[in-house]
């Protein structure tokens, strides 16, 4: 599981898609990624949410892929970037925009040169 407090006071949580349904349905209806863990049937449950710490409101975040055991960090512009995971997410990069209050993860699959699982992301200063 990852938790990140964003600069716009949104707390973002996301976790594995392989342990079955979460307690919250993914909205809007029909916005369900196909799950390899469910024989490529639609997974209509949220595995990522954003919580606004000022208003107490939360929303689901669409995420396609398996981020379990991934690593994440914030870019200098405030966007969240998560890399790696397990199963179909080993070589994935996921990005969540800070500037769009209704943003979903944009995932690029098979873009990393090698599998990334249980590792650390950090900024290397020049």
Automatic annotation (TrEMBL):
UniProt organism field: Ambrosia artemisiifolia
Domain Glyoxal oxidase N-terminal: 1-118
Alphabetized InterPro entries for the sequence: Gal_Oxase/kelch_b-propeller, Gal_Oxidase_central_sf, Glyoxal_oxidase_N
Protein name (record): Glyoxal oxidase N-terminal domain-containing protein
Source taxon at top rank: Eukaryota
Pfam families the UniProt entry points to: Glyoxal_oxid_N
């Amino acid at each position: 599981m990852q938790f990140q407090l964003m600069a716009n006071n949104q707390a973002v949580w996301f976790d594995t898609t392989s342990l079955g349904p979460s307690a919250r349905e993914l909205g809007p209806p029909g916005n369900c990624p196909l799950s390899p863990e469910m024989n490529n049937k639609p997974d209509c449950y949220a595995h990522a949410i954003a919580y606004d710490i000022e208003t107490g409101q939360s929303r689901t975040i669409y995420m396609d892929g398996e981020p379990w055991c991934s690593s994440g960090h914030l870019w200098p512009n405030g966007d969240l970037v998560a890399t790696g995971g397990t199963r179909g997410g080993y070589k994935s990069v996921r990005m969540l925009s800070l500037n769009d209050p209704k943003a979903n993860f944009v995932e690029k699959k098979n873009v990393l040169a090698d599998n990334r699982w249980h590792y650390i992301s950090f900024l290397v200063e020049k």
